[in-house]
Design brief:
InterPro entries: QatB. With 290 residues, the protein is mainly alpha-helical. The protein has ten helices and no strands. The protein is globular.
């Protein structure tokens, strides 16, 4: 929360899934006559109909963030003791602010892509060794260096660009993950076990979801306690809550895909994010009812 990207949060009329998260269709190549391949030259007497404009995303409920924001503010004001409002904030963020787990996962566009690149590298390092995995990025000279240094060298490959809020969230989550490596006992590895791979990805997805939530309903709205220990407690409670959901989602996904091939990594990551949001909504509802 204290390290989330500086951003005033989306307006209430922002579409649930921003249009810029989709990839624009590629234009077909032109033939020598200037018309797209396979298309006859235009008939002057019967000009072609203008192309249909893409549908404008529906304007979402302008108040959809208010419930989650109010609950998160109460949780922060309690210094981390009000678990009921923490649960309400998270469950309402997923169900109402985002429009459900699938929509919430779709809002993590850059973080899902970066997560897939990170998991792809970890999978390669586990299968072929760190040096060979780094050779793909012309970084084989980094083999044998502390993992934190290796990950810093990989930053532009894992999280290219930071021009949008979405890209900034992805890069911030990656940096936070690097900081956490020492605390997880992963600072000086020459290879990754499957369990260690999952720990790194779990850390990344946790930080990405936390940053997304804080940017949407926390920044410039939630007032953190002035007491440093209380503020730390609020951050830790929120992060631990999110990590619990991510951990459960990752464990379920691994049960279905214990051996992950490179062509399935993106769909695996997408499923983890969607499952994590669904679990967080359920966990939040349980907390809210206590």
């Amino acid at each position: 929360m204290g390290t989330s990207t500086a951003y005033g949060g989306p307006g209430g009329d922002t579409p649930l899934v921003p249009s810029w998260l989709g990839d624009p269709p590629a234009s077909p190549p032109a033939n020598p006559d200037g018309a797209p391949d396979g298309t006859p030259p235009p008939d002057a007497a019967n000009p072609p109909s203008p192309p249909e404009k893409p549908p404008i995303p529906k304007v979402a409920d302008p108040q959809r963030f208010s419930g989650a924001r109010n609950n998160l503010t109460r949780f922060a004001g309690s210094g981390g003791s009000d678990r009921t409002n923490l649960g309400r904030a998270i469950s309402r963020y997923v169900s109402t602010s985002s429009g459900g787990a699938r929509q919430a996962a779709q809002r993590m566009g850059a973080s899902r892509s970066a997560g897939a690149r990170l998991l792809g590298f970890l999978t390669d390092a586990n299968a072929r060794g760190m040096r060979e995995a780094l050779r793909e990025f012309n970084l084989d000279s980094m083999a044998g260096r502390p993992v934190s240094e290796v990950f810093i060298a990989l930053a532009d490959h894992i999280c290219p660009g930071a021009g949008t809020v979405d890209e900034g969230i992805a890069r911030e989550a990656y940096i936070e993950t690097i900081i956490d490596l020492a605390n997880e006992g992963l600072a000086n590895l020459t290879a990754f076990t499957p369990e260690q791979m999952d720990t790194v990805f779990e850390l990344y997805a946790t930080h990405a979801i936390e940053a997304r939530i804080c940017n949407d309903i926390g920044t410039k709205v939630v007032t953190m306690p002035s007491d440093a220990q209380a503020a730390h407690r609020v951050e830790k409670q929120l992060r631990d809550f999110i990590r619990g959901g991510v951990s459960d989602a990752l464990a379920r996904a691994r049960e279905n895909s214990p051996n992950l091939s490179h062509d399935r990594i993106q769909s695996f990551v997408d499923s983890v994010y969607e499952s994590a949001f669904a679990i967080l909504q359920s966990l939040g509802e349980v907390e809210a009812d206590q």
